[in-house]
Structure formats: structure tokens, C-alpha cells
Amino acid sequence: MKKQQEPVSYGGYLQLDKILSSQDLKSDELNAHAHDEMLFIVIHQTYELWFKQILFELDSVKVMFQNDYVDERNIGIAVSRLQRIVEIEKVLIDQIRILETMTPLDFLDFRNFLTPASGFQSYQFRELEIKLGLKTDKRIKYSQQAYHVLYPEEIQERLLDLEKQPTLFGLLESWLERTPFLELTGFNFIDAYRKAVDKMLAGERAVIENSNLDADDKLGRLQLMSASEKHFDSMLDEDKHNQLIREGRRRLSYKATLAALFINLYRDQPILHLPYRLLSEILDIDELLSTWRYRHALMVLRMIGRKTGTGGSAGYGYLKSTAESHRVFADLFNLSTFLIPRSDLPDLPEKMEKSLSFYFTQQGK
Amino acid sequence: MKKQQEPVSYGGYLQLDKILSSQDLKSDELNAHAHDEMLFIVIHQTYELWFKQILFELDSVKVMFQNDYVDERNIGIAVSRLQRIVEIEKVLIDQIRILETMTPLDFLDFRNFLTPASGFQSYQFRELEIKLGLKTDKRIKYSQQAYHVLYPEEIQERLLDLEKQPTLFGLLESWLERTPFLELTGFNFIDAYRKAVDKMLAGERAVIENSNLDADDKLGRLQLMSASEKHFDSMLDEDKHNQLIREGRRRLSYKATLAALFINLYRDQPILHLPYRLLSEILDIDELLSTWRYRHALMVLRMIGRKTGTGGSAGYGYLKSTAESHRVFADLFNLSTFLIPRSDLPDLPEKMEKSLSFYFTQQGK
Amino acid sequence: MKKQQEPVSYGGYLQLDKILSSQDLKSDELNAHAHDEMLFIVIHQTYELWFKQILFELDSVKVMFQNDYVDERNIGIAVSRLQRIVEIEKVLIDQIRILETMTPLDFLDFRNFLTPASGFQSYQFRELEIKLGLKTDKRIKYSQQAYHVLYPEEIQERLLDLEKQPTLFGLLESWLERTPFLELTGFNFIDAYRKAVDKMLAGERAVIENSNLDADDKLGRLQLMSASEKHFDSMLDEDKHNQLIREGRRRLSYKATLAALFINLYRDQPILHLPYRLLSEILDIDELLSTWRYRHALMVLRMIGRKTGTGGSAGYGYLKSTAESHRVFADLFNLSTFLIPRSDLPDLPEKMEKSLSFYFTQQGK
Amino acid sequence: MKKQQEPVSYGGYLQLDKILSSQDLKSDELNAHAHDEMLFIVIHQTYELWFKQILFELDSVKVMFQNDYVDERNIGIAVSRLQRIVEIEKVLIDQIRILETMTPLDFLDFRNFLTPASGFQSYQFRELEIKLGLKTDKRIKYSQQAYHVLYPEEIQERLLDLEKQPTLFGLLESWLERTPFLELTGFNFIDAYRKAVDKMLAGERAVIENSNLDADDKLGRLQLMSASEKHFDSMLDEDKHNQLIREGRRRLSYKATLAALFINLYRDQPILHLPYRLLSEILDIDELLSTWRYRHALMVLRMIGRKTGTGGSAGYGYLKSTAESHRVFADLFNLSTFLIPRSDLPDLPEKMEKSLSFYFTQQGK
């Protein structure tokens, strides 16, 4: 019996009594009413609600990938949920415009009352970073301290515990390593790819050498070519890749990187459509989070200038630097460096191509 | 002594314990977990938080206009706060994209559990409509009943009481009636305006008559001209205006309408900048609310088709019709009909122009 | 040899000499410079560029569906291109905010100079409507005339010719009719669906009858139930569906409608992911076009009030009514009416389920 | 006689024959049709159209400020036009989503054909940077060369000439220096401000010293306090300000900075409303341009990875660094550092306050 007995009301269902009674202005408490404090509270509450939703989606996706065997049906669902996170992130960015209707002077009316609270203390945001896969040693130091010491002891423990759990990065890496694309039907992807790259680079080099560019310009471009060739080396040679990992300049394992490259190169194959979208949504999530961080940093700069934050935080400089450094899936962004034009792409063996296809409509009719 | 004693924490300040513990899924309670119900709850909670913020700003603006004498300083503040409402409305519209990541089938997983709750029961939204100035007799009938009978008795009383309070529409009307522009320094605005309109219409008529259009087309356009002239009549003649009010086709008093027209026509005068922006923000609010209603109706159509809502409501048809009918400031939209080109605009007497100006930089240097 | 010889320059490639020299202000020609006319020209030119792009994508999608046999690989590409149209539409809507920085009075500075040109004369927009599948007899009459008489004769012919070409609506319909889902492995979809619907409706009716609602309310809800049951009848009975088509209340053929319903109901099957997204993007396109029309109508209302357009067009009233009437894929919106909860969904035969699946990762390992 | 004789047509007025015939695909010319090249061309053309519009607005604003005496009426108009630029910038950012529907592999289909053209060659964008006031010596080096050598000689000259013209930055600075606020009626702003700052800082220091923080934390915060005090020194002491200018860390003259600070602090005065909005819109323009640069850089990263651009440009790294370094109005952002709470703000002398006010409604009634 699934149907409930008691009639549900809109307000009761949404627990509006709690939601709408959770705005107590510090400035009122201190008899110095500051009109804009209400906005400050409400917008942060909506941010936290959306963080909760993002975590809820992220957790559900992680569960799907935690099994050794990922049901294919789930890839489609995972893509939908990651796409929902993307749509939420867009709104998180749009919302900044609302906060910017509060001017710096309006903020000063109540800013001091909030000391030492700081947005940095958002537990859910830390949780999000960790669950995506931000590594502790990649974190920008905040006030010269390990980030977690700013939290009460109980929260510290939860954060340290969280860091030991599987992350989206790790789960994606394992899944990529397990995908069978690279081993299907005897197609040696890395060999075919190497030949295609060599041919492409030789062609590009010839174009420069045969061009009418003046000597200096030609030299400059040939130097850039060399850099580019060296770059490809790092993809064609597992040892070099692993060396870059040791140096902290790459993170994704070699096998997973090749699988992701394969998906990107052959994404026109029907069966690779969903894996490609999966990677694509994850890039979107990282890109929009980065954009949000950047916009947020600019907004803070405009609001408090070069002052330190209410919690004594490093303010604008810190926030801005996280926009780049806290990007978790940088390796996926960098993959584009290693793509080659479709016209240079090695053909898949017919048998393999067939195994990557499926059919909707009646054939041979 | 304004500074607080106890250190404020981020989570405590935002009452996150309450905010983040207010999501109980009906589908969980009924042992039929529906993943998307979380989104459904969270997005409605953010909507209600934003409605609270809009009402907070609206109330503060109404207070400013409730005095007989409106401090000029307040016009600037009112404009800022109305503009904040505009920015919030944009996010309300953008958020619909998030909800649309929930597909109709996903919604069906828990829709039945919510009966008979309905978004129509949002008290704050009704409050917003009433405070803006939506008149009860203008409301689209909802399920063939007076709208308030759908609420518990206590809420009904609050709504009926609210309807007796001053509205933004009414306060704006009074303020417009009290503005001194029309009486300043003996400039007879309505006379000057009438002459300018007559000249403009005569010119337009001449253009058509002297054109190379074929007879039918010319006739058609001249008929449109007559309609246009009749339209202007209704602005130039107070009795006709009042007749339209009695017929329910206009609402704003004649005096207030003329003041608003004056502000629109002479908005280049420095002193009219803020009054013009005030009218402009109110139009934005109405336009975006209308857009939100329309987008919301489309989303509902897509989600449940032509079904009735969970509360037995009339669904798409009802929602769509409110997009137009519940527009409160239709008279301000219509004002554009009565504008005339700057080149036809009567010059203000020098003395009046001076009284509408002010100066920032050193003159005569 | 694919590489070009001559070096390409940014400005030459984009033909900026033409693009950036195509803004001649009428008001300048008439020695009555109106600053805002530049914006008016530029924004319309960007609209036309985007229309060109939309048509380019739409044409490429149509070609894919014009073959009897649609390569599955193309569904993924079609989805991507339709999604691009969606992103463009969002920008078309966003751009209205730019135009709204032009005030009604600013527009009047040059509006008369444009007579009798009218946005209605956008050939590309008409082309878009026709290619999507807007039927001539569904068009809202514009100035009481057939829409095409407003164009020069040569254009009229092109439009009338266009109307004879295959439309996205028609091609989608054929493709849906050809999909094999309904006939796969002997699963009788319509029978299974009918049983599920009957069970669901009986359940809903029982809930109402056993509820504590007062007599009037119960009666009201039961009446709504009857309406709902009648609605389902029209889907379960091909004759009733065809009757609705004859009455102009439905358009999509019965077979195509069932296929679309099947895709919606079983979209969790991996192989249905892309067909589902295809339908989904088409809905998005229609919904956003509708939103654009509505926003555009509101903007026109605000700009010129209830005046007729420069071309003598019917202005706001006309534009607003097209927002609903010119929606081409209304049948897809209405499909939601016929969805049933997953919990009531008939299971697919195992053999069929298998044929709708595919696998990425290594199984049994 | 202002009315034109010949009837205007929509297509003729917009010169659609030119606009819509300016898309020639290199890939078609080379017999290697790449579908996505059309989007690439069209989106860049819309960008250039919008750049033209932005420059048109910017030029018109610059003219207003080029006179020694700026008509007050013009401040309102300038604000409107700057706000239009803001709305355009939002669309420029939104448009990136459209370009991101082109995948890296799709881009590779035609990328090589474009060599050595590069978006860096957009003359209008360079023009915009220069007209806003970007100084040549502040430019990030692009490919290790002065930026203008990348252009044909004729363009180089135009760019170098442009750099000698007045910029928005320079004109705003002069206007601020000429505003009379600081000298009105004997109010010594800098003295009053100094006292208020001293009092505020002393208060903040006391709060820290009397707090229950542990010794380390207290020390840390007191160090931050010292930094903050030093910061204020640089505003209170003209010599220190000028020293920072010499070091390239500030740019706006001391006098202009104080005027801008005054406007920010006393913006509630009616007469300061427009000057405040003027500063505010300029901040918006800079902030959104910065956001656009950042989003654009991310998009490029995603599209081509760490490769160099088609013109041999430095790609992502270069683009990202301009987001911060090419911000022209950094001094206005930094102003927030020097704001003090309204409660600490020195009262204006009554006579001065009166001169900053004006009245709409009937007084003394």
C-alpha cells in the first residue's frame, strides 16, 4: 500500500515553517537593523540548498560507479544527473548578480557583526571538493594552515574521513581502466594512433618549411612544433606519462587516459555516445565550478576590496587562485591537446566498428 | 555597544541545521524511494526563500511610499530594491531549466504521493500578487471558486485582510498624483501635449495620403490611423479615461497617468531620472513575473500534459492565462502608446527646465 | 592537397569589411541622427545571423532523416545539432534584454523612418517556421491576409515552394513510424499499456472514493477523473485519435504517436537513450521558440504599446497569440498526459530488453 | 522634410544581402566540408557586430566627457549607454555556451585551414581595450612581441594613433578631478574621513584584543590589522598614493581617487545617485569583460588543450592571464578597501547636504 493516508499540504510538505523562520538578522539582534542582511542570509541559504542537491546527485552517481560492474543503463542516468549539476551550477553563477545588488557600503552596515564566520566554513562546499576528488596536497593554503583546522574538531574528523572515501575522480579512473575499448578485437589503438600522429606532425612541419614566412617567423613556428611533438611523446610513452604523474603534472593513470582519448576520438560510434557525454558533463561541471570561483572572487574583490575576509581569510587572492588550482579534472581538459583530425584518424577494424554500433530502424528494407 | 560577544559561526548564522534538515521525501516515507523528489523539494524551497526576499524588499519600498511626503533620498533606495527584485526574478526564471532536468516519467514516480498539495497553495506567492496590487475581481477563477477558499480558514483571513492593505499599485498612484511636475511654473502640460499630438497625427496622415500605396493598402492604413487617433483621444480627455476605468479597461487614475506620461516624455531632465527608473523597474518586475508565469506554464504542460494538477487545479490552461491577466501594471505598459517623438515634444519653459536640473561640475569655468 | 596556399587573415576570413559596413542609419540619411538606431540595426543583424545558423543546422538534420534508412550514428549527431539550436535560442531570448535598454522614446526618434519595413518580413524566420512544420492553415492571420502576400512576388514563390518540402515534423513522424520498437519480439505494447492504464486509473479512483474529502470535493475530483479517463481513451483507440486529427486537435499519426509514447515510457533502456533525447531536444526547441515569441511580444508591448507595427502589423496581440498557436510539436508536449508511473509500467519481455541493451564494460569479470 | 520617400524594406534596411552572404567556408573551398565551420564563422561575426556596438556606445560616452564642462543631463545618458554595454557583455558571455556545442574533434576538422588567422587579430577588440584605457606597458606580452607587430602596417599605425587619444579611464579621471564635491561649502572631507578611519580601526583592534581567541590566533589577526592600517595610510597620505602610482600599483590620480571615494561613501545623497551609478556601470563593464576573458580562456583550453593558437599564439595561458592584468579600472575595485561603515561616516554639514538634494513632491504640506 503506497498511498499515504493524511492529506499533504504544500507548506507542510516543504516544511516552510522551518525554512522561512531561519532568517535572524544579527543586526536586529544588536539593534542596528541593516536592511541588506536579509539578502545576505537568504542567498547563502539558497546556495547551501543547492549544494545539498549537488551532493545528493553526486552521491547517487558515485554509488553507480562503485560496483566493479557498471550497469550500462546507469551511464544514461549518471549523465542526466551530472547534467542536472551543470544546470544548478549555472544558477549558482547567475545568482551572483543578485548579491551584487548589495553595494560595498550596504555590506559594511553589518559585516562586522558576522566576525569570525566565513563562507570558507561551508562544510558542504568542502565536501563537494573532496568528493569530486580534490587532493589535500593540491589545496591552496588558506591562511597558511591546513584547511581543516578551521573547523570544530568533530567536523575535522568527518572531513579527514571523507578524504579516505572513493571520489568521482577515482571512480571514473577505474571505470575508464575497465572499459574494454582498447582491447576489442585485436585493434592495437596505441600503435595506430602513434602512426597517425607521426604522419600529422610531419605534415604540419612540411607546411611550415614550405611556407613563405620570413626566417625568424619560420624558426619560431618550428620551435613551437618541437614543443608540440614533445607533448605528444608524453602521451605515446607510458614511462613519460608516469614521470609526469610523479612530478604532479598529471594525475589520471595511463590506461584511463588512453581510454578517455579513445572515447574522444571515436565518439561518433553510437555505443560511445554516452561515455563521451559522461566525460563531457564532467568537464562542464569542472569548468562551471571554475567559473563560479572566478566570478565569486571578482565579486568579493568588488565588495571588500583587498581586505581580508570576515574569518581572517586571505580574501580575493586566495579565491581567485582556487579557480585554477582546484580544478580536479584538468587531465580531461588537456586531452584536447592530443586529439587528431578525423581525416587522420585510423579506421577501426570492421568487426570492431560493428561491435560499437546498434540499430534503431529496420535495415535492409 | 554594537559588537556581539559570542563568535558567530557560518552554519549557526545561517541556521543550516534547520535549512538542511527540512527535506523529507514522501516517497521514502512510503518505501518507494524516488530519486528526483529531492530536487522537487529543494527547488520549491529555494523558490519560497526568494519569495520571502522579494516580499521583504517590496514591504520596505511600500513603507517609503506610505508617507504623504516621500523623502527624495528614498526614491534612489526604492529603485535599488526594486532592481534587486528584478534580478531575483531572472533567477526564478533561470531555475526552471533545473526543474526541467526532471522528466515527466521521473515526476510520476512520486507525483501521486503529494496529493492534494499544490503549488497554488504557496501563501507567499498569493501575498506577492496582492501586495503588488492584483485585484480579486481580476483573478482568473481557479477551479471555478474564489481563490481563497482553497486555504485553511486562518490563512483565508490573513489573505482577505491583506487585500485591504495599501498595495504597490495604489501607493505608486498616490505618489504620481502628488508629484508637482504638472503644475510647475504654470506650464500647461496637457494643452502642449494635445497640440503636439494633433500635429504629429496630421503629419502621419499626410504621409499616408501622399504615398504611392495602392488604394486598398492606403485605406487599410488610414483606418489604422483612425484607430490610433481615437486612442489618443482617450488620453486627452479625462472623461473618456474615466469611462475606460469604469469598463475595467484602465485602472490608473487620470492624474497619475498624466504624471507618468510626463515623466516618460521628459525623462532626459536630470531630476526626472530617478522617477523614470522607478517606473521602469516596476515595468521590469511585471514583465518578468509575466515571463515566469508563461515559462512555468510551459514547463507544467511538458511535465504533466493536459492533466489537472495534484491539487485538482486546472493546470496549464489556468497558469498560462494568468501570465497576461494577472499583470498589475498594464497601464504603464500601455503608456508607450501615447508617447510622441522628441522632435514633436513641446519645449519646457526655461524656468521649469531649470527647476528640473542640477549640477555636478563647476560651471562657468 | 587540402592545405590552402594563401595565408588566411582574421578579418578576411570573417569578411568583416562587409559585415561591419552594413550599418547605415536612416536617421543619418535624413539628417536626424538617432543614436539608438545603430543598436536597432545591429541587434537585428545578429538575429538574422543566428537564424541563418539555425536553418543551417536544421537543414543538415533534415537531410539525415530524409533517407528511408537513418544511420544510427546520425541520431547522435542530429541530437547534438538540435541541442546547438537550443543554445542559440537561449541567446536569442537573452538578447531581448539588450534591446530593452532602448526606451520607447528613443525608439520614436527613428521609428517613423522605417515605415513600412517590419520584422514580420524576415524571410528566414518564415523559412524556419515552415521547415519546422508550421502549417499554413494554422497560422494566425496577420492583418487579415494570407501571410505570404506581404512579400515581393519572388519571395512569395519561394515560400509557397518551401511549404511543399518535407518538414522536420513530417520527417520525425515518418522516422517514428519506421522505428521497430512496437513490433519487436512479439511484445504487444498497446495491449500491455492498456492494462496498465486501466489498473492505474482504477487505483486513483479508489483513492478518491475512500478519502475523507467532503461530498462536493469528492464529486469534483471524480469528474476530473472521468475527464482523465476519456483522455486516455483517445490514446488507446486509433479511431478516436484519427477523429481528433480530423478536428485539427491532433496532428501526429497514431503509429508515430505510439512509438513516441513507447520511447518516453521505456527511455531507461540504453538503446532508447538517443531517441529519447531526440524528442527531448525538439521539445526544447519548440518551448524556447514559444518563450522567445512571448518575451518578444511583451517587449513590443512595452516599446510601442498598443500601436500597430511599422509595417501596419497587428503588433502585440498578434505576436502574443503566435506564442501558443505556432507551436509545431504540441503533440509531443501532450504526450505527458499519457505517461504512467514506472511502478505501473508493464515489464518488457526479457528477449526484448536484451535487444534494447548494450554493454561497455567487461562482464563476468 | 524628414520623412523618406522610398519605402524601406526589412531586408534592404538591414543589408541582409551582404550580411547573409559573408559566410564562405574554407573547408568547402578546400573540398573538405566541415559542418561546424559555419558556426565558427557566424559566432565570430556576431561577436564583431557586438564589438562594433560597444565601441559605438563607448565613443558616444567619451564625447560627452571630452568637454571641460559635462552637461549633467549627459550623466544620465552616459549611464544608460554604459548599462547597454553591460547587457551586451552578458550576451557575449552567454554565447560561449553556443560555441561549446562544437567539440574539439569537430574543430580539428577545419582548424588547420585557418592558419595563421587568429582571434587575436580582432582589430575592434584591440580598439576596445585601448579606448577603455589599457596601457601598452601593462599588456601581457603575446608571443614575446609588442602586440601591434602582428598587424599589417596600416593597422599598426591606426593602433598606435589610437593610443594617443583620450581614453575612458583618462576622461573619467579628469571628470572626477573636476567634480566640486570635495570643496563644497568648506567641508574638509579628508580630515573628517581620517578621524573616522582612526576611530574605526581602534575599535576593531580593541575587539580583537578583548576577545577570547587563543594567543596565536590573536597575534595573526593583529598582524592582519596592521596590514589593514597600513593600507588606509596609503589613502590618507597623498605622497604614499603617488609613490604607489610610480610603482605601477595604482593609476588613478589622488584627487580623482578621493572624489570617487566621496561618491561611494555619500551615495545616498540624491545628487550623487547618478555619479555613483556611473562608477558602478564602469565596474560592471570591467568585471564582465574580465569574466568573458576567463570563460573564453577556459573554452579555448577545452577546445585545443595546451596547444598554441592557430596564429602561433600562446593559447590558454596568455588568455587567462589577461583576465586579471588587462583590467583597466582596478583602482575602482580597490576603493572598497577604503570604505567605512555608514555608522562611522562623518555627517555632512547641513548646508552641504542641502546642496546635494533635490525634491520631487510637494514639501511642507
Note down, in words, how this protein is organized.
The structure is a homotetramer of 365-residue chains. With 365 residues, the first copy, chain A, is mainly alpha-helical. In chain A, helix 9 (168-178) packs across helix 13 and helix 14 (273-304) runs antiparallel to helix 15. Chain A has a domain at 32-182 and 252-346: Methane Monooxygenase Hydroxylase, Chain G, domain 1 (Up-down Bundle), CATH 1.20.58. The longest helix of chain A is centred in the last third of the chain and has 32 residues, at 273-304. Chain A contains 17 helices and no strands. Chains in contact: A-B, A-C, A-D, B-C, B-D, C-D.
Protein topology:
The structure is a homotetramer of 365-residue chains.
Chain A: H1 10-13, H2 16-19, H3 26-29, H4 37-66, H5 72-99, H6 104-111, H7 123-132, H8 153-162, H9 168-178, H10 189-209, H11 215-236, H12 238-246, H13 254-265, H14 273-304, H15 315-325, H16 330-334, H17 350-355
Helix pairs in contact in A: 4-5, 4-7, 4-9, 5-14, 9-13, 10-11, 11-12, 14-15
